[in-house]
Amino acid sequence: MAERFNGIEEVTGSNPVISTKLRRFQPMRRIGPYSLYPIETGRFRLDGGAMFGVVPKPLWERRIPADERNRITLAMRCLLIVGKGRVILVDTGIGEKNDAKFAGIFGIDHAHSTLERSLASVGFTPEDVTDVILTHLHFDHCGGATRHDGERVVATFPRATYHVQREHWDWAMQPNARERASFLKENFEPLATDPNAQLNLLDGGGSFCEGIELLVVSGHTRAMQLVKVFDEARTLLHAADLVPTSAHVPLPWLMAYDVEPLRTIEEKSRILGSAADEGWLLLFEHDAEVETAFVERDGATFRLK
């Protein structure tokens, strides 16, 4: 049934707990039957040169200033999708299992926010989450999928099904030399062994459920999945690391982390072309200042609209 709260018509679905919580918190926006909430999980820092590849520092530093160690501040912004009786979390941030040395290297800032605090700020707990879609298994995207429980590492969301592309899971389990430091197995391997975790390995993109589609791309890492939420009038794309910040919208602005940069350019051209032509809103996972934006064509490339 539909109810109205805070001036927004809300489709409550079949889960009374979710329905009650939806009446208390206003989402970023509504698309179809879903309420969408950006979920901040902390800030961290990566080398600016690595984040922008061949783009000269005088250009990228105009957009995102570097610190004395050449690191730039990045968000770890996830997306909570609530509706149709489901609470779907896209990515989980870096998590809180890391030691002081790791936290220092990457400048992890959980004073800014944590996954659990941000969930609570919109009225949810880890036990409420029904599905976790992991775009890929680099540590800054999936670290929060597991947590310490004494000496064990267990699933953070005990009632959720975790969805990962099978091709990407296999890629991460046998990491190449280029990405080995990004795939930390304690972040995801317990999902296959924890009896409370349900791991669902997907074979390709397409429809995830009503109004949610997965787009699979492989330039950044093999078989990363982007999440598209849509209805007849509106579309939001969680752009993951295809377009990690608003500064990465122009086609040549790529990360040195990409395993196949020319493929990234082709994938960006195709997907940003659809976004520009069809008016999709992009959600940037790593932009500390710009949460969402529309894009438009700029000759052979793209820019913020």
Please describe what this structure looks like.
This protein is α+β, with helices and mostly antiparallel strands. Helices cover 20% and strands 32% of the residues. The protein is built from 8 helices and 19 strands. It has helices at residues 16-22, 48-52, 57-63, 100-105, 115-121, 139-142, 166-173, 261-278, and strands spanning 2-5, 8-11, 29-31, 34-47, 71-83, 86-90, 131-133, 146-149, 152-155, 161-165, 198-202, 206-209, 212-217, 224-230, 235-238, 281-283, 292-293, 295-298, 301-304. A 7-stranded mixed beta sheet has the order 3-4-5-6-7-10-11. Strand 12 (206-209) and strand 13 (212-217) form a beta hairpin. Mean pLDDT is 92; it is low at 1-13.
One letter per element, helices H and strands E, the order comes to EEHEEHHEEHHEHEEEHEEEEEHEEEE
How many E-type strands? 19
Distance from first to last alpha carbon: 36 Å
> What is the topology, as strand order, of the major beta sheet?
3-4-5-6-7-10-11
Mean pLDDT: 92
Q: Which bin fits the share of residues in helices?
A: 10-25%
Helix-strand category: alpha+beta
**Global morphology:** globular
What's a quick, concise take on this entry?
The chain has eight helices and 19 strands. The chain has helices spanning 16-22, 48-52, 57-63, 100-105, 115-121, 139-142, 166-173, 261-278; strands spanning 2-5, 8-11, 29-31, 34-47, 71-83, 86-90, 131-133, 146-149, 152-155, 161-165, 198-202, 206-209, 212-217, 224-230, 235-238, 281-283, 292-293, 295-298, 301-304.
